[in-house]
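Supplementary Methods, section 5.1.

A reviewer requested that the exact input to the structure prediction be made available. We therefore reproduce it here, unchanged from the version used in the analyses.
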Amino acid sequence: MKTKSKTIYKRPTQKSKFVNLLTTVDHKKIGIMYLYTGFTFFLVGGLEALLIRLHLAQAESTLLSAAEYNSLFTVHGFTMVFLFFMAVNSGFGNYLIPIMIGARDVAFPRMNALSYWIYFFGALFIHSTLFIGTTAPPVGGYLSEESNLFSNAVAGGWFLYQPNAGIQFSPGTATDIGVIGIIFLGVASLISAINLTVTTFNFRAKGLTFMKLPVYVWMTQVVSFLLIFSLPFITIALFSVVFDRQFGGNFYNVAMGGDPIFWQHLFWLFGHPEVYILILPVFGIMSEIIPVFSRKPIFGYATLVFAGFAIGFIGFGVWAHHMFSSSIQPLAQAGFGAATMIIAIPTGIKIFNWIATMWFGKRNLNVAMLFSIAFLINFVIGGVSGVLHAVVPSDWQQTDTYFVIGHFHYVLVGGGLFGIFAGIYYWFPHVFGKKLNETIGKVHFWILFLGLHLTFLPQHWLGLQGMVRRTWWYDEGMNIEFWNLISSIGAVTILVGVLVFIFNWIFSKRKGEAAEFDPWDGRTLEWSTPLPPPEYNFYDIPKVKTRDDFWHRKYAVDEDNRSVSKGKHDEIKKYTLATTLMDNSHIHLPSNSLFPFITGFGLPFLGWSLIFRGTFMSFVLLSIGILSLLIGIFGWILEPEHE
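The structure derived from this sequence is encoded token-by-token as follows.
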């Protein structure tokens, strides 16, 4: 793509890696930064969960106090849902979507960088509750214990139910920090969703019509729409909590006519689509990996795509199944129960499509494929236990028990995490030019698979035996110690599996097998680039003629769409690698900028100024925040085009 400007330039590269990190607007680097940051918080959230399980490994445990326990499971929920899953999915989307659609960058590169930095500083802001958060429980309450790192953190549950997370029962600054931090993360997600939507609609390669798009791009597009339409609900809810806590509002104060159930409606109007926001990108990952390692095109492409949209649409109509034990009317309970059953249909369509793709395929059971197959097994278990909640009397028995904990974690850990690991093993060569070690990877897979079932399968039985979720203490006579011990052993097993993966990552990056061009014999456009790809992605913007265009450039197919002979693979490889040595001065890319970083840097100070409202410290923090925003925004506006 040639520019009309007489000044023709490439994106300049900073000499300092640190400066380049702060100023980059390259979608691939931002995607990698999302992945690294997200996995850092995965380790943080995992260690928080491990402490919880170690505490519950035996009856009448004193490892954690009640205050520490409440804070740990709350911060764990924040970390895993908002800081790990959403960040990693953003990382995959930022890295892959432009390359998959034949583009050189996203539509708004600097806004893309701003989205990352708002997420990064928002995540730090939320975890500042561990150090500057305060709680002041009622005198005589069981939370009034000696202060420490965890007992002063936000402790109202990641869903912040009112009035439990209100000023009466959760006084102090900790909850305020958590609420404001989630608002920041919502801004980051909204920017990213709009950016990826505009990119997909406007930056597709010539000939790449919507019904030729990779399924991963489709699923990410559904997620973008879910974010755009669901984030206003949670934003309204969070701002109302801020007004209640900071300015004496009465949105949820029953004594003044407020309604705590109103919070549940607003939260779950976001919270249930959020489940699909977390899992639909993984559906897309499965839809790219399974065809490649089954040596077959995806079965039922159109139904797979429309099933994704059906999940997104129906997902807005099932939120109240989280509220069957509240005061909603029986007619509403019946309607939401039916909707919960109906949403299983498009989900089942996807599962059968993936199975049909593998059926009679030439399956390559490498690590990425093993994680994909395990994803199907785990997700079906989690999905079936979820459908049980559509039956209202059954839900009444299971709600607020460990049965729900087991179900939820089978979906997000057994489904989401396993899908993410599948994607990492699949696209690792594309990012780093090396393959993750397959032998170590299989050790990682089997340990993690064992740990998952040891941890979360017993939790279903614990729930049916009556163990209530958020349980801090249980007596020996309750006969639940054995399965709690097994669950805790499983958590340690998961830790071992993650440590094996970290070792594999470090070992493979340093001494791993170099990945040749198109190492998996891929089907989609990202595999038509050198590994790792150049900054501009494509020397020549691709011209797409058919779905799975890169595959059809390499292979001739018979009437059943099965490959029968190798085509021009060697010629494609030779030309693609040669482009890295060609003159690319005609390629126009936006230059790096420090101003997205400066703009994002100011937001936490604005949040802290509200936390310490009425003090001199608040004035100092507010001044830093406003100054940072002014420098960032006006510097961004006035920055020369070719800076």
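The first strand starts at residue 555 and ends at 557. These observations are discussed further in the main text.
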